[in-house]
Amino acid sequence: MALNMTPDEFKGARRKLGLTQAQLGAILNTDPATIRRWEMAPDVKSARPPNPVACQVMAWMLGGYRPPEWPGEN
Asked: 55 and which of 5, 37, 44, 73 could share a cystine (Cβ 3.0–4.6 Å)?
């Protein structure tokens, strides 16, 4: 998976991981509103492209990595 994802790819990856926007925000130390903006269609005024570092972390998690902040992992 590339360092850049489309908003739909990013949203699909989050859903595949079974994470809510709030849970992913906690993992990435990012406000859930930012996650929402990354997942918006590009033609929406407040939309932002997914952060490349966040995309890389998503790729790692899709590959099996689970950070300490993973829901239920304490």
From this structure: 5
